[in-house]
Write a structure and sequence with these properties.
This protein is of the alpha+beta class. The chain is built from 16 helices and 20 strands. The strands form 5 sheets. A 7-stranded mixed β-sheet has the order 14-15-16-17-18-20-19, with helices on both faces. A 5-stranded antiparallel β-sheet has the order 5-4-3-2-6, with no helix packed on it. The N terminus is likely disordered.
């Protein structure tokens, strides 16, 4: 088999002007690197879709090659784990932000030139102008990228400089000291590929701590609170509201610190091609991060052949390179498609409706796949005050099935996650008032959906949601509830670090425009017989309300907390069933509460129309068994995982890489291909 491949894990970005990184091996085990549910979509405000740009990853080359028999991306069991290989820190230190270096001084890129540099490799030299030797690295000029062309001896090598804009060779040559250089990615030609700066939120109130602001930390408990929570604790002994009960805080144990987000920025890791010895960022090489996958998969021992090697070979040789021994697992993960994930009645119905709807609109969205990636049973606990007030006349809890529907599209040979929808289904077995109601709690898009003609993403998004509503109506659900308030600026609800919206920038879509987007969607559903009627929550639900116990409450919804406050106020501090307002008065208070937020909610009465096409892959029309994956069981878990693992969707290469990692963990380890008979 191939020799163990050298890996490079880049953590903290270089600090200080003109500072150059260097490869630094460290021992194994060295570092590794909103209140209410809502929905955000891009609507029709983005205009035309942007082009995909240059493909610098392996995925395009991989998808041009046929599979060997038995080597396709077969779905197996899932799981999570970590592995450690060769680790480097671009700043010469091991570990993540705040971790001390493993050694006192950084090593050069290679102690011996021939040990770490090869022709065709790309280097970042401490540039400014070119010359026989690079200028002093202490200046503030950005590094100059060059390609090694030979002359590797005595710790020096010959390079050809690249144009900083086009990254093409300029014809200008130089001889440089290897110790003055750092590895650069041979795909994007950049030394560092930085991730989004992390956010710091107060453990006590969940407010963001701005970069440059003070906060207080209790390292042993892992608690970090803002100055407002600290002042309340110090002056009034007021415990932060969101702090877990088991955490004991004392002002004397808190350390004052300053949050500097830029100092916590991490960057992508490096991996080396086994054939040409060039280095690539994980994202640029489409190399799944072994630390995010179970160690028993053995991904770190897989053979990698880079896209440059494949592109320079003739077709027959390129096919051989991609099928070389020890690469089947890596290739299967890189080529895995969302269509390999199991389908169910819900996803089949949605896909069928989308196909009919977009065809009727004259829109194409080729390669679109919808899958239910999670469906689990939960219980929404009754508001305590309601149970005390109404006793046996009010349920203890409301059982529901949570579903996560994700939509994927093949873009330039690789799947990209483009849309997600989280719903709560309270079926006929659920007690009143939630019986046969479905709640669309979150939906979000990455803005990478490609349509023909361009700029028709809303047509597809509407078809996905309406396809689900059609399925829900046919399954016996009578009402659908939708929360249509946009998120606060800077907040994200399902996808992390999404593609910027050119119409709004970092600002959220105005509530009026978002509501209009939903209204157009429901008008289309009404025109096609999916929805009988719809309106705001006051029209459809509250106008005829005679008892508070007839008001449906959903998990994580806007209203449970407000209902609890109304019931507590009505009791005057005593047990509600001993001292209570008249029910009519309580209902009027609830109506007044709803009137102030009525435009944030829409309620649709479903008509029970039959699905567009019969469901495939189901057992007698019934749903498949519960499918759970902690990664996507809740939008909070998925968003947290995206942040922790740097699964970003801000540009197409990152979106493709994040989707590849998501599909790897959803589908599990590919089944090894059968051994051929000798």
């Amino acid at each position: 088999g191939p020799p163990p491949r050298r890996r490079a894990k880049a953590t903290a970005a270089p600090q200080g002007e003109g500072e150059m990184g260097s490869l630094q091996p460290v021992p194994p085990g060295g570092g590794s690197g909103a209140a209410n549910p809502t929905a955000e979509i891009d609507g029709e405000l983005l205009g035309d879709d942007l082009g995909a740009g240059e493909d610098t990853s392996l995925l395009g080359a991989l998808n041009d090659q046929p599979d060997e028999p038995g080597e396709g991306p077969v779905v197996g069991d899932g799981g999570e784990g970590s592995s450690v290989g060769m680790v480097v820190d671009a700043a010469g230190a091991a570990g993540g932000p705040g971790v001390e270096p493993a050694v006192d001084s950084p090593m050069p890129l290679a102690a011996e030139a021939s040990d770490g540099v090869a022709p065709g490799m790309h280097l970042a030299i401490g540039g400014g102008s070119s010359g026989v030797d690079p200028p002093d690295r202490s200046n503030s000029s950005p590094p100059v990228t060059a390609v090694v062309i030979g002359g590797i001896e005595d710790g020096r090598c010959d390079v050809e400089l690249l144009d900083p804009e086009t990254h093409r060779p300029t014809g200008e040559r130089s001889r440089v000291a290897v110790s003055d250089c750092a590895i650069a990615c041979s795909a994007c030609k950049r030394e560092t590929l930085l991730f989004e700066p992390p956010l710091l939120r107060c453990s006590g109130c969940d407010r963001k701590v701005r970069s440059g602001s003070s906060y207080y930390a209790e390292p042993r408990a892992g608690v970090r609170i803002c100055t407002a929570c600290f002042d309340a604790l110090r002056t009034a002994d007021e415990r932060p509201a969101m702090l877990p009960d088991e955490v004991e805080l004392r002002c004397g144990s808190l350390e004052r610190r300053v949050w500097e987000a830029k100092e916590e920025v991490e960057q992508d890791h490096y991996v080396q091609c086994d054939r040409c010895q060039r280095w690539y960022h994980y994202i640029c090489a489409a190399f799944p991060d072994p630390a995010q996958l179970p160690p028993e998969w053995g991904l770190d021992s897989q053979t990698l052949c880079c896209s440059a090697c494949v592109a320079s070979a003739d077709p027959a040789r390129a096919a051989q390179l991609l099928r070389q021994p020890g690469s089947s697992l890596l290739r299967a993960l890189q080529r895995r498609s969302a269509s390999d994930l199991p389908s169910c009645a819900t996803s089949d119905a949605v896909e069928a409706h989308v196909a009919v709807e977009i065809a009727a609109a004259g829109v194409q969205a080729s390669g679109l796949v919808v899958r239910v990636v999670s469906q689990r049973l939960y219980h929404c606990r009754a508001v305590a005050g309601m149970k005390v007030r109404y006793g046996a006349d009010y349920p203890d809890s409301f059982p529901y099935r949570s579903k996560a529907l994700f939509a994927f599209q093949e873009v330039d040979g690789a799947d990209v996650c483009v849309f997600a929808l989280y719903v709560q289904e309270y079926d006929a077995a659920c007690p009143r008032p939630n019986t046969n109601r479905t709640y669309i709690s979150y939906l979000d898009s990455t803005r990478w959906l490609h349509t023909s003609p361009p700029g028709q993403r809303s047509v597809v998004y509407h078809a996905i949601v309406n396809g689900y509503l059609q399925y829900a109506g046919a399954a016996g659900f009578s009402h659908a509830h939708l929360w249509v308030e946009p998120p606060k600026a800077g907040d994200e609800y399902i996808f992390y670090c999404r593609r910027p919206d050119p119409a709004h920038g970092s600002r959220p879509m105005p509530t009026s425009q978002l509501r209009a987007w939903y209204v157009r969607m429901l008008e289309r559903a009404q025109a096609t017989g999916i929805v009988a009627e719809f309106g705001d929550i006051q029209q459809e639900l509250v106008s005829g309300l005679t008892s508070l116990r007839d008001f449906p409450l959903f998990e994580g919804d806007f209203f449970p907390e407000h209902v609890a406050e109304l019931v507590d106020e009505s009791s005057g501090g005593a047990e509600p069933h001993f001292s209570r307002k008249q029910s009519i008065t309580l209902v009027e208070d609830m109506k007044a509460q709803v009137a102030g937020v009525k435009r944030r909610f829409l309620v649709a009465r479903l008509s029970g129309a039959a699905p567009t096409a019969p469901a495939r892959g189901t057992d007698g029309g019934h749903e498949q068994p519960v499918r759970s994956n902690e990664l996507v069981d809740s939008r909070q878990a998925f968003l947290a995982a995206c942040k922790a693992r740097h699964w970003q969707f801000s540009d197409l290469p990152r979106a493709r890489y994040s989707t590849m990692m998501l599909l790897a963990l959803l589908g599990g380890r590919p089944v090894p291909p059968p051994q051929s008979a000798s």
